[in-house]
Amino acid sequence: MSESLHCPLCDSGLTESFYRDRRRPYLRCLDCTLVFVPPAFHLDRDAEKAEYDLHDNRVDDPAYRRFLSRLADPLLERLPPAARGLDFGCGPGPALAAMLEQAGHAVALYDVFYFPDAAVLGGQYDFICATEVVEHLHRPGAELDRLWQCLRPGGWLGVMTKLVRDREAFAGWHYKNDRTHVCFFSEATWEWWAKGRGAALEIVAADVILLFKPQEVRPAAHRRPC
Questions:
Q1: What is the C-alpha separation between 79 and 208, in angstroms, rounded?
Q2: Distance from C-alpha of 160 to C-alpha of 219, rounded to nearest angstrom
Q3: Is residue 187 part of a domain?
Q4: CA distances from 92 to 30, 54, 89, 157, 215 (A)
Q5: Burial code of 191-203, b = ≥16 C-beta within 10 A, e = fewer?
Q6: Is residue 36 part of a domain?
Q7: Is 2 part of a structural domain of the chain?
Q8: What whole-number distance in Å separates Cα of residue 215 and Cα of residue 213?
Q9: Domain range spanning residue 120?
Q10: What residue spans of 41-84 are helical by DSSP H?
Q11: Count of domains for the chain
């Protein structure tokens, strides 16, 4: 066992050393298999935002819209008309929200740095999108559970994030080199998360994950004996 650090997704204290580069260590949870960076190696809030400010993700950028369509297209195939959604972690240029609105849906925006209106997190939604977001979360367990509570039964949670394969691939993986990336999910992690919530999991592309929240099952009414 490695350092006695708790997993930020499932809160397990059972972790192992997974990899270390010249800047930071990476641990893996032995319960949910999340790979994560210990909090001592996270950027502070100002440094983190400075990294995000370097991104140039514009609403009208065709290349960026093509990238986002890898989530938008399969999600749109599953949504009813005029659905209400949330673009969580939308960044300063909410292109995905614009694409979904053009398809006839209403989309609320939330981003802790650029659209920090926490009131939208008290709403209920038919779908929630988190594109290139979960790898940045310092408390992914709490944040994902909050989003799941915001999702109506029969709704979809759509996630874009690249997935961990194994140590060998991780060693040469460019994705880990972004200092704002502190959580790395694998297929097994999403399977664990979905099972714990009774969700139906679809991995529709190498970095596109859809989770369906089933309709709530009501207990059968008790009949009075004749």
A1: 16
A2: 35
A3: yes
A4: 36, 11, 9, 21, 34
A5: ebbbeeeebebbe
A6: yes
A7: no
A8: 7
A9: 15-212
A10: 45-53, 62-78
A11: 1
- State the amino acid at position 207 in one-letter form: D
Tokens 């998360």 appear where? 193
User: pTM, whole model, 2 decimals?
Assistant: 0.92
CATH of the domain at 111: 3.40.50.150
Rounded to 10 deg, the angle between the 95-102 and 62-78 helix axes is 50
Please give the average pLDDT of every successive group of 10 residues along the chain, which has 226 residues: 75 96 97 98 96 87 94 98 98 95 98 96 98 97 98 98 97 97 98 97 97 73 40
190: helix, strand or coil: helix
Q: How many angstroms separate the Cα of 136 from the Cα of each of 77, 83, 216?
A: 28, 27, 31
The answer to whether residue 145 is domain-embedded is: yes
